[in-house]
């Protein structure tokens, strides 16, 4: 078994454990951790359990989680974990949420697992091996016309500079809303990206790049034949400012729309 295959088995087992925790907690507490930003005790329970599991299974690999930060000596490789992506949905009983886990090596992810505990699907990928949903290979959209495209747009910004950032989002929504088939705001980057990989969405525009939110989905999209770029159309890396995932046939149109929203002239 190759190292990537072995590490994918670890990632798959980790998100399965997380799914069990999420589905076994019928009640939970919710608290604020920032401006209009929530955390539940299920988020922290999942992260603590997966940190313990990953540290036991791969002690040479560090962990960066949304709720507890970074731990371990990563040596250039680390697990990026979002214990529940879409916490606001989860807290309201909306089943659009997921557990996102990626192995990041240098600037890119090499192993990915995203479990959607209420939809019964686990997406997995290892670099060079394709993308899968419950073991079945998936592929990104082949659409070439924006009028045929269903596009997910990430949440509005909160906190510092939110007004300026949201003005850009509104320009983008106005532009794409006038030309795309449909616009969706699902409230979870993990599902946005997994569904681009699965061809359910033709593009996902996430104007931020927290590694725990995005790095698993980025690998899924690439392994499914899609493109993932930064806001300016350059190659997406862990250090990118935005995460733009798209079926390859719409890449240029989406980048052009972003340029207009940001007032960029090329």
Automatic annotation (TrEMBL):
Reaction it catalyzes: a myo-inositol phosphate + H2O = myo-inositol + phosphate
Binding residues annotated for Mg(2+), in chain numbering: 66, 82, 84-85, 213
GO biological process: inositol metabolic process; signal transduction
UniProt-recorded Gene Ontology molecular function terms: inositol monophosphate 1-phosphatase activity; metal ion binding
Cofactor: Mg(2+)
Family: Belongs to the inositol monophosphatase superfamily.
UniProt protein name: Inositol-1-monophosphatase
Source organism of this protein record: Amycolatopsis pretoriensis
Taxonomic path: Bacteria, Bacillati, Actinomycetota, Actinomycetes, Pseudonocardiales
């Amino acid at each position: 078994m190759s190292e990537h295959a072995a590490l994918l088995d670890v990632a798959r087992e980790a998100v399965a454990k997380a799914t069990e925790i999420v589905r076994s907690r019928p009640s939970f507490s919710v608290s604020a951790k920032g401006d209009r930003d929530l955390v539940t005790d299920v988020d922290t329970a999942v992260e603590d359990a997966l940190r313990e599991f990953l540290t036991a299974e791969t002690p040479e690999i560090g962990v960066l989680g949304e709720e507890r930060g970074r731990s371990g000596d990563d040596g250039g490789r680390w697990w990026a974990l979002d214990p529940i992506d879409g916490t606001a949905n989860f807290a309201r009983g909306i089943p659009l949420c997921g557990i996102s886990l990626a192995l990041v090596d240098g600037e890119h992810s090499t192993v990915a697992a995203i479990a959607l505990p209420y939809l019964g699907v686990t997406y997995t990928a290892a670099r060079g091996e394709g993308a899968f949903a419950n073991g079945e290979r998936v592929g990104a959209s082949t659409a070439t016309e924006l009028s045929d495209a269903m596009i997910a747009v990430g949440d509005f910004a909160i906190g510092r500079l939110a007004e300026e950032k949201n003005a850009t989002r509104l320009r983008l929504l106005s532009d794409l809303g006038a030309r795309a088939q449909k616009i969706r705001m699902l409230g979870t980057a993990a599902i946005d990206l997994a569904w681009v990989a699965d061809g359910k969405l033709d593009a996902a525009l996430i104007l931020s790049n927290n590694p725990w939110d995005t790095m698993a989905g980025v690998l899924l999209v690439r392994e499914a034949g899609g493109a993932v770029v930064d806001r300016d159309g350059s190659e997406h890396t862990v250090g990118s400012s935005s995460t733009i995932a798209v079926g390859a046939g719409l890449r240029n149109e989406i980048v052009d729309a972003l340029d207009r929203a940001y007032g960029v002239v090329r």
